[in-house]
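pipeline/complex-builder :: batch 7 item 3
reading input block
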Amino acid sequence: MDTVADKVALRRAAQGHFSTWRIDTPFQPRLAELSRTDDWYSWAGYRAPHSLWDEELEYFAIRSQAALFDISPMTKYRVEGPDAEAFLNRLTLRDVSKLKPGRVHYTAWCDDEGFVLDDGTLFRLSADRFRLCCQERHLPWLLDSAVGFEVSVEEETEQVAGLALQGPTSFAVLREAGFAGVEKLKVFDLAEFDHEGGKVVISRTGFTGDLGYELFVERDLALSLWDRLVKAGELRGVRAIGYTALNRARTEAGLIVANADFVTSEHAIRANRLRMPDEIGLGFMVDATKGHFNGRRAILEARARGKLRHVLVGLEIEGNVPAEHAIVYHKKHKEVGLVSAALWSPMAKKNIALASLERPFGDTITDDLWVEIYAMRELQYQKLMKRAKVVQRPFIKLDRRTANPPADF
Amino acid sequence: MTSFDCIVVGGGHNGLVAAALLGKSGRKVLVLEAAAEVGGAARTEEFAPGFRTSSLAHVLNRLHPDVVKELDLERHGLRLKRDAFIPSIALVKVGSPLILQGAYGESLTGASATEQTSWRGMRAQLLRYADILKPFLSRRPPDLGGLSLGETAALGQMALALKRLGKEDMRDFLRVLLMNVADLLDEQLSDDRLKGLLAFDAVLGAHLGPRSPTSLLGLYYRLAGEIAGEAGAQLLPEGGMGAVVSAIGAAAAKAGVTLRTGAAVGRILVENGRTTGVVLKTGEEIGAAIVISATDPATTFLDLVGPRDLDTGFVRKVSNIRMKGDAAKLHLALDAPPAFTGLDASRHKGRLVIAPSTNHVERAFNPSKYGEFSPEPVMEITLPSFSDASLAPDGACVLSAVVQYAPYALKEGWQTGKAKFQVAIMAQLEAYAPGIGRTVRHAELLTPADIEARYHMRGGHWHHGELQADQMLVSRPVAGWSGYDTPIAGLYLASAGSHPGGGVSGAPGLNAARRILQRRKEA
């Protein structure tokens, strides 16, 4: 065992983590079977599909059927202990004491300067047990934030598989699959259900603005859960989808994505890319009355001194050409911002966009805004200057998202 | 709930200075001290029946002139006269010691003529450069987030002072600023005794050896101090270091400050990002809109405020303050004065240094990097009972020594290491003062662990944090918060952990009080 070749082989064996180009999620065997487009990208190091068969139809699976989307690459932390609530209250913007066991809320967290580190969803599994899901990795920050609290923080991204089941028939699929009682879940509720001798946590949450659920399960039970849903959904049009379709749905729902619609503060290289919650539409989360939380001093000071420089807005743009990454102008000549997500919304029947603008534009000055769209027409850009109107988000509001009991399609 | 305008946590000399200045400005001030008496590490304590000594800090060499003036300390009984200056003496095992007379070697006794000339040149240069840094001692470090007019002016003055040095000298100032002391000494001097003493002074109280980069800064810090207007001067206060604190305490009392001893603070109260007072360990609450913490920054934030009311990044920075002491303190009750080789008994009032060469100091430092104490420690010895006979019984003698290196986190632990270290120290003393061991009636060795426990200084570090380039000026105690205010509104820092640092200077207390008064004016 001591030839050079043996030693190299030994070393290689111990270095799987970086010789693997992209990690497979627990659902990869099913995704691979279904993939016709072979269109993969890296989501936080995991192999994830941009699309599986047809991004257009995948989108319509969300809106008219039920779409299965693998969210296992989402970073997940288990936060447990008697001080878990106090710890999360200090860490995040919203008041965690108002989050009851069995509930989920959308929240965000900031560094000392009040710049957003990430946004994510916080699942309260019990009084002192939480799951925090987000885009970026934060273990060192979470552990350093835990100093002085009786709490344990562990990353469970790899152990726990996640699935989003979204769309009008999603409830019917779950009922069909035998998750008795799932009809009782109201929006942002969660509950545990039996699956193959284990447990699956189902929450009525999602990233589509539609009726939908998210399911979390130990990785060993991932494939059997997938199969259970697909089988139950045979007559309900259940389809696996990739990120492109989801991205359209979330834009219609007006939801933002870290490092797409804003740069998280640990990733930003340029100082003027950092964003406070108020600058990306998350100001509503900031609870100045709940006691101390990271960034509180800086955020309140910026508010008091009028130091907020940016604002994230929804735009409705004339025409039907998506304004992806278009520059936003005031009076057609003054640059005031940039579009971060855009599409022709089949649901709203409107040309919509999310954009970051420099205040006061988008804040107090909302008229006479324009976007310059570069439309590629047979190897030539056609420059379109289109009028843009600041509108409320979400761009679409579907009653079925919140209807109780959920509609049975 | 009783309430005051200001509460000072910690009755060390910096806390008392801040309290006295705030009291003078008309504020109702309360000082809370955990121990039975005020003074912190600048006390005179009895360590054996009939034997008293300055218990931690034992040489006065940098009490800030503004503190002396603004608190009128000389009228409160402090004597700071040139005739009390004491020399520094480099002890030897054989031959004769080298003596730096007056204020840090205005003249040298026992060196060759060439060495005397070299030293005159070097001393003048050291003092010239230290003088450039001196104005910073009594100011807030510049606020990099937004320079005020005053700060810009102060930086301008420094630039002007540099310019006044002349082109060659200015270049040399910039060249040597971050050098190690050993290289500079080798450039200019040749007498090992002199070099050893200077190398020792540069690293005294720091986790540095003379060959560690930036070790020269320690010497500048030392020489930026002054007594009675003389840079580098030093004396042993009559009555021990406690007398200095008594004078400051008297000034505080005159200013109407209330002192409470035996009152350990358990928590600094924070409501809505603002302090509202303190809770004593007994549970008693005392209210105040302004709390000045004169205990070290790590204890202040991690223990008294607690991480829950602070931001994670700030807690990270505070937890990373390097503050593991590397110096021990030895007190000996001797039946008779020691006889140091070649030293005339008339020199017993001096500051006696065992640091025979730069190499010796460096070798003493080396083990401490790996969690071991110096087998042949270097030390600064005073015999305070020669300056104040009341400190020891008739005919007997007190020896007080700061001994390096004694790493706080001793690998084998101080439980067992302490006795071994004491043997090493006594062997070293015996080599320089043969027979001293037989005269020891009582010995008290304070390791950094003891210092931490007794004086509530985290890590047993008398500077409340390493005084090195990365923890100086705008980075003291942590970057972004070097100006005595803190992320908690109404809470200020006034300990040696803040700029400019440790030693019995009162400067952090002075600057903190000035900051509070200035903010009041602005508000």
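note: The mean pLDDT of chain A is 96.
queue -> next item
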